[in-house]
């Protein structure tokens, strides 16, 4: 994860980056993002990326 320069939120790697960096299957990475969004642990902003959600 990396800190976004324009935001205080932490940006998650893209689905492609996850598959390349960790060697996971290309069908697994989107499932990870989907599960994290469902649990409201991340939020995805089109064209910007996925970011760690603030604690509630």
Automatic annotation (TrEMBL):
InterPro entries: WH-like_DNA-bd_sf (IPR036388), WH_DNA-bd_sf (IPR036390). SUPFAM superfamilies: Winged helix' DNA-binding domain. This is GntR family transcriptional regulator.
């Amino acid at each position: 994860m990396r800190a976004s320069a324009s935001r205080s939120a932490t940006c998650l790697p893209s689905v492609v980056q996850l598959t390349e960096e960790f060697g996971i299957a290309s069908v697994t990475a989107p499932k990870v993002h989907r599960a994290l969004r469902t649990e409201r642990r991340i939020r995805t902003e089109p064209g910007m990326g996925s970011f760690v959600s603030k604690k509630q």
